[in-house]
Amino acid sequence: xxxxxxxxxxxxxxxxxFGERLAHFRRSRGVTQKQxxxxxxxxxxxxxxxxxxxVTLSPEQISxxxxxxxxxxxxxxxxxxxxxxxxxxxxxxxDVFTEVGRLPRRQQEKIVDVVEAYVEKKLAHA
Length: 126
Prior knowledge:
Order of helices and strands: HHHHHHH
Number of domains: 2
Distance between the termini: 60 Å
Largest sheet: none
Number of helices: 7
CATH architecture of the largest domain: Orthogonal Bundle
């Protein structure tokens, strides 16, 4: 008998105000829930809960979350206006980099090295 793990799928639960801001900052930086969770040393499901449910975070979690996302506490908690989306690429390039994000870290680093070298070369000749 073969057992299959249930794969994640988007929930219909509306986001809390905090969850909406968290998802906004995460997406605007082109980071998946899984990638953010890895940076924070927690599970992807914890990030999903943070985005969809009212949760209580420790001061350390809040501070680390703001630092990792590169935002102030005021931005994270909504005391400042939410900025517009950052100019992260869309379309095909976003799809490719999303797939790159699923590769092992070492392979991701090799791809980043190639892309950075190419961009630097193009900017130097511009």
